[in-house]
Specification:
two-stranded antiparallel ribbon; globular; alpha/beta; 6 strands
């Protein structure tokens, strides 16, 4: 099944989106809680679009493979740590602000945007984004 999954991912995604080299995968195994256990994922998918996320999730669902989404891997709980033979879905390249709707005070972002970048962007519009964790400069909105 491993070869079949990798083939399907390779057919659905750009080649630069897939990491299978064990040395490159190593940096995606852990968030900042390196004391927590982490598995050895089958592959890291570095998604750049919603379509790539959807394709990855369809293939994972079809083959019943666990997926661990990751943002900036700034967490301290191990929640973004890899699972053996799973897929790590890196969202760090999806780091755009899609919309700042000032009248309605709504912001739409991709999950990889850093809190600090979002805070600075909304400040230019007279708005304030309040979450301020200690990892503010390097943590992302989602993962």
């Amino acid at each position: 099944m491993t070869a079949e999954v990798l083939t399907e991912l390779a057919e659905a995604l750009p080649s630069e989106s897939l990491l299978t080299d064990r040395d490159l995968i190593e940096s995606y195994r852990f968030d900042r809680a390196t004391f927590c256990e982490a598995g050895q994922p089958l592959v890291v998918v570095r998604a750049r679009s919603v379509d790539q996320v959807s394709a990855t999730m369809r293939i994972a669902s079809k083959h019943r493979i666990p997926v661990v989404p990751q943002g900036a891997r700034s967490g301290l709980s191990g929640a973004a740590n890899a699972i053996d033979d799973g897929i790590v879905l890196s969202l760090e390249a999806m780091n755009e602000i899609v919309e700042i709707d000032v009248p309605n005070r709504i912001v739409v972002t991709q999950p990889g945007i850093f809190n600090a970048d979002l805070s600075r962007a909304v400040l230019e519009h007279g708005l304030f984004y309040p979450p301020d964790p200690s990892s503010w400069e390097f943590c992302s909105i989602g993962g």
